[in-house]
Amino acid sequence: MPTVAPLDLTGHCVSACFLGDVPVFALADGVVHRLAGGHAWTEAHDGLLTAAPTRDGKCLITGGEDGKVMSLSPEGSVELLAEVGRKWITSVATGPQDIVAFASGKVAYVRFSDGRMRELEHPRSVEGLAFAPKGVRLGVARYNGATLHFPATDSKPTELEWAGAHTGITFSPDGNFLVTTMQENALHGWKLSDGRHMRMAGYPAKVKSLSWSAKGRWLATSGAPAAIVWPFQGKDGPMGKAPLELGTRGDAMVTQVACHPNEDIVAIGYSDGMILAARFADQKEVLLRRAGKGAISAMTWDREGRRLAFGTETGDCGIVDISA
Fold this sequence. Notes:
Layout: E1 3-8, E2 13-19, E3 22-27, E4 31-35, E5 39-43, E6 48-53, E7 60-64, E8 68-72, E9 78-83, E10 91-94, E11 100-104, E12 107-111, E13 117-121, E14 128-131, E15 138-149, E16 158-171, E17 177-182, E18 187-191, E19 196-200, E20 210-212, E21 218-221, E22 227-231, E23 244-246, E24 254-259, E25 265-270, E26 275-279, E27 285-289, E28 296-301, E29 307-312, E30 316-321
């Protein structure tokens, strides 16, 4: 049976992840909590809005209401990476070669590993950021579509149009597809080789969480009373194919999904704080955590896939150990 080690905090958990072996929980008040031989914490911001670990898992990049972008180490040391004055940092993304992107208003900023900065201005607010799995290519979610930049060059960006407000963005692990979350209850996607559209609709709520499976063959999503898992095995992605519906519950909505790093399994977090794990092949379910005080707002597996860090909107956080 999985075991749960709780960490009772106060406030909305924006990110729950691992830096190396250290579980880290970033809260909206700007304090980042760590479990490294005990409970320690670091005040990173005056109001924290967004956070993402670096690709090597060695640092947590955070952005806040104070206009600062910080890098936090597993030991709790904080480094100021950038500052944009009295503007909110609403999104961050981490890429290869220690590149960091962050957004404030209509501008996406790219900070290279040597400290150089590049500003990429857009006609409307930048809502989401993601780096492609290979190379230095940045995807920007915006109103009426997405923009793809090669920020290390002066090449003209690629514009992908689709009417509506696009709020989040992700590349498939093989780099063949781009998917955005939308203000309406839907996803939109593009096949990047030919610009072909993919529409994934029918959700009863907004999709706020996306997670690719270990080999990129599936995309798990929130926004329904089950985890909606789209198949991406074929050359045209999910078009013409029905998604899996895993962990169906009639009394709670799925608020977070986190695919296992090695197996075709997804952790499913619900609006009542419950967490299930479900296997794609046979839809078998295992209870990881009973319902708690608030909706699951953040979840990440460690690299081995043995421990799951989770956080909620009300601050009851913790670690699920499935190897116990």
